[in-house]
Amino acid sequence: MDELDLDLVAALQYAPRAPSSALAEVLDSSPSTVGRRLQRLQSSGRLRVVGQLDWSLVSDAHPRHMWLHAESGRAVEVARRLARMPETQLVALSSGRADIYCVVHPAERARAAELLTTEIPSVEGVRGTQSDLVLRPVTRADAWTLDRLPVGRLEALRPYRTHVPEPDEGAVASGPLSDDEIAVVGVLHADARVGSGDMARELGVSQSTAYRLVQSLLERGVVRPRVEVEPERLGMHLEVILSLTVRPGAIAHVAEKLSAHPSARYVSVVAGEVSLIHHGAFRDERELGRFITEDLAALPGIADVRSSVLLEVLRRYWIDRDKGLLGEARLPFTSRGGGR
């Protein structure tokens, strides 16, 4: 990606549904140029704006960070098999804590035990597993942005940002969904920039109805638009999962500080062998070293840090990856809500 591409990514991260005309104003370019750039990035599989779904749509269970050891020489084979499972949200080859790191989201709470103790451990080539239960996400990938554009330049995009109040943890943010809402969620999950006209044609409803449905889902936080692009294409050549053991009284403070760090793609409080998971993207080894020896060292209460470097991501947010190129988005739920 060149400089204009990177600026476009940063602008989209700030306002994923902003029209090309507003993006062009911020980037000091023309709407036609911005439109062509965006189309090229999307059609080549380098970028996609998808809809991040409220957990209540996916399952009544919380995700698990899972660490797998594979038999010698079989890590790639095992990772590919895991990536074909519908309940694996992220699958990556890693070094450090385990051979494979994945995020598993059981389809329902009752499925968790079978999935974690039988199905995944029995995948051919798996030698051992360990998992950490996500208790609370502190920051998620839709909040991670490139620090390229000053706030003043982003002002033109402010009207296109959707303010979403954070739901209380454990509450169902979406409530039961109608059949039309479920259909809209499916379209937005694959393409969160779709306009009301295209949505109306997709659903066979009026444009005003489509607009109302989309806005309602966005404002309630049922769907959160987010930019999907591999960090390496943005100059972040190291992705690392840091597992931190933190004194209980310091967990909230450390989690808050980590979530504000520019490297933070995802930070969660977990129950398991560790207290916190920090999924960070770094430009190089020197930047990672500074983070561990300076930023983490300055936070009181951290007793232990274990690092796992992601070597290759095969799947992220239910989207398969091939050498950094994005495949098709797969809907990670089967129409929960609406009595169906």
Core attributes:
alpha+beta, 11 helices, 340 residues, single chain, globular
Description:
The protein is an alpha+beta fold and 340 residues long. Helices cover 32% and strands 28% of the residues. It has eleven helices and twelve strands. Strands 2-4-3-10-7-9-8-5 form an eight-stranded antiparallel beta barrel. Helix 2 packs across helix 3 (31-43) and helix 8 (196-203) crosses helix 9 (207-219). The longest helix has 13 residues, at 31-43. The termini are far apart. The relative contact order is 0.18. Mean pLDDT is 91; it is low at 167-172 and 334-340.
Write the layout of secondary structure elements.
Blueprint: H1 3-14, H2 20-27, H3 31-43, E1 48-53, H4 55-58, E2 64-70, H5 75-83, E3 88-95, E4 100-104, H6 112-119, E5 126-139, H7 179-190, H8 196-203, H9 207-219, E6 223-228, E7 238-246, H10 251-259, E8 264-271, E9 276-282, H11 285-296, E10 302-316, E11 319-322, E12 325-329
Antiparallel strand pairs: 1-6, 2-4, 2-5, 3-4, 3-10, 5-8, 7-9, 7-10, 8-9, 10-11, 11-12
Helix pairs in contact: 2-3, 7-9, 8-9
Secondary-structure element pattern, one letter each: HHHEHEHEEHEHHHEEHEEHEEE
Radius of gyration: 20 Å
Form type: globular
Q: Tally of extended strands?
A: 12
Estimate percent helicity.
Answer: 25-40%
Largest sheet: 8 strands, antiparallel, barrel
Beta content? 25-35%
Mean pLDDT: 91
**Helices and strands: which structural class?**
alpha+beta
**Count, helices:** 11
Distance between the termini: 43 Å
Strand order of the largest sheet: 2-4-3-10-7-9-8-5
